[in-house]
Amino acid sequence: MCVCESDLIKMKLHLITRRYYPGIKYNEAVLGQFADDLGIAFEKEIRDLGEPEQADLATRVYERLSEAASGDRTVAAEAGRTRGSTTPA
């Protein structure tokens, strides 16, 4: 099996974040965009971070995932309203 560097980066970001925030969902698009925004080109760049830096990175990834999830819920709610259905409270 062949895995490209960008997949390794996304998986490592997910694993680091999951250590601090158990139960998070893997979101390939958000993780990829986050890595691009930070200019992370190689998995080694985040693998070799110290514990405090990993904790900070995990918090930043978690915040980005949370923003994306709340945006997805808003879009779904708006789509439901346009179809005439109601969104549960």
Describe the fold and architecture.
There is one protein chain. The chain is mainly alpha-helical and 89 residues long. 71% of the residues lie in helices and 0% in strands.
* Estimated share of beta-strand residues: under 5%
User: Which sequence of SSEs, written as H and E, runs from N to C?
Assistant: HHHH
| Count of individual helical segments | 4
- Shape annotation: globular
Low-confidence stretches: 85-89
Count the beta strands: 0
Radius of gyration: 16 Å
Structural class: mainly alpha
- Largest beta sheet, briefly? none
Helix content bin: over 70%
Mean pLDDT equals 85
Q: What is the first-to-last residue Cα distance?
A: 45 Å
Summary keywords:
single chain, 89 residues, mainly alpha, 71% helix, disordered C terminus
Quick overview of this protein structure:
The protein has 89 residues and is mainly α.
Topology:
Blueprint (H helix, E strand, L loop, with lengths): L4 H16 L7 H11 L5 H4 L3 H32 L7
Helix pairs in contact: 1-2, 1-4
